[in-house]
Amino acid sequence: MRNGDGDIVWGPDPRLTELGEQQARNAHLAWKEELRFGVLVPGKFYTSPLMRAIQTNKLAFNGSTFPGIEVTIFDDPVSL
Description:
Helix content is 36%, strand content 10%. The chain has two helices and two strands. By secondary structure, the chain is an alpha+beta fold.
């Protein structure tokens, strides 16, 4: 099964591109800035089982900034 074009992988479970990783890091920095102003932090994060979703979650909401927050991976959105 072909899994990309040599530059970008599009399936069946692609990882984040460098741009996607940077966007997730930028989201993390934005959250850190908002935390300084007392923004409420979710008590739980839900993510898709796809690799790019898990990677985004880890980069954007890493444990050092969001300690103790539970991450739940759902492969069936109906069960939410």
